[in-house]
Amino acid sequence: MNGRVGIDNVRDLFNDEQFLTKFFFYFSAEERGTLAQVCKKWKSFLYQSKFWVDVTPIIAFRNWEKNPVVRRKFYESLQYRGFDSICLQGATDDDVVDFVSNFPPSKKNLRSVSVRCSNITDVGLETLFKKMCIYRLELSGCNEITETGLWTSLNAKIVSLSISDCINVADDTVGAISQLLPSLYELNLQAYHVTDAALAFFSAKQSYTLGVLRLKSCWEITNHGIVNIVHSLPNLTVLSVSGCSKISDDGVELIAENLRKLRILDLSWCPRITDASLEYVACDLGQLEELVLDRCNHVTDIGIGYISTMMSLQRLYLRWCQIRDFGLQHIYSMRGLLVLSLAGCIHITTNGLYGLTRLYQLQELELTNTPSASKGVGHFLRENLPRCIVLD
């Protein structure tokens, strides 16, 4: 079969390593975990690290077997598969100690750790950093961790940090980040109590290293915070202020005038943003590739007219915006657009959607919750945009 000698039947085929390599890549990571239980040969073969690249196993401690033998076998299976990331969910300090004690590769292989919805304290966080070399850290829903714990635990090797839904996070957290993480490239922060003052803490070195800043639902951030961002972090390529509801057109003007290297800008859920902001963006951000305007209810067809002149723009998200067919007519001219979302745009008509067929280069079009996107319209768009995935 296929020029290979010795494969005369199905049994031989399913024991042939060359065939199995191609065969197993047709399955998801979860399905490969099930297939590894078929026989010892498949288990041994599937436990090669090449089958688990970019896969993050999740350990749900609250529902997990307490038997130390069972846990040890699971840790061994992770070791064999060579994971470089792990997610600890529902963990306590004791679970963290158990993990780092029984999973030796944590000291060498693991580079990314997520801790979600867990009751670990500052002690548990410090244990993680003492036993592991962490480059990417996510903390989500960890309400027992304090700013003191972050000051004592964070190490200078971290290049990516994400913190969300941790109630003790405030300005002092940003102070710890700015002083302890000189190599930080990406910061994702969702914190209700962070104020404008914190955004002035970033160090001179971080002004060169930090390229990605995502602030989500930081309700206390105002245009004064934007002033601090553009002065402290002039080399940003990705900026999100999603849900920072106090930011207005003046803040966007500051962003457009000072952050000329931006490739991605997310202004979603900013109710004070109007068409004026889009004029600033269109005039000054000539390298922008992605713009997110979801739920910006004061953006109209006039604003869409401004951004339709941006030849660099490849991805445009307008979910639940108040645009109409006139705005779509501006979008028809954006021949470089690859991804477009019009989900929830209730004022668009069927005729407006038909005109999207002029965007022959489009690869993805989202029309969910758009009343005029009937089955017939979806069928028409798929026929006339054969390279485009239409989500309706």
Automatic annotation (TrEMBL):
CDD domains hit by this protein: F-box_FBXL16 (cd22127)
Pfam family, one: LRR_6
Family matches, as InterPro entries: FBXL15_LRR, Leu-rich_rpt, Leu-rich_rpt_Cys-con_subtyp, LRR_dom_sf
GO cellular component: SCF ubiquitin ligase complex
Listed SMART domains: LRR_CC
Ranges for domain F-box/LRR-repeat protein 15-like leucin rich repeat: 139-282
Gene3D superfamilies according to UniProt: Ribonuclease Inhibitor
GO biological process: SCF-dependent proteasomal ubiquitin-dependent protein catabolic process
PANTHER family from the UniProt entry: F-BOX_LRR-REPEAT PROTEIN 16, PARTNER OF PAIRED, ISOFORM B-RELATED
Protein's name in the database: F-box/LRR-repeat protein 15-like leucin rich repeat domain-containing protein
Lineage of source species: Eukaryota, Metazoa, Spiralia, Lophotrochozoa, Mollusca
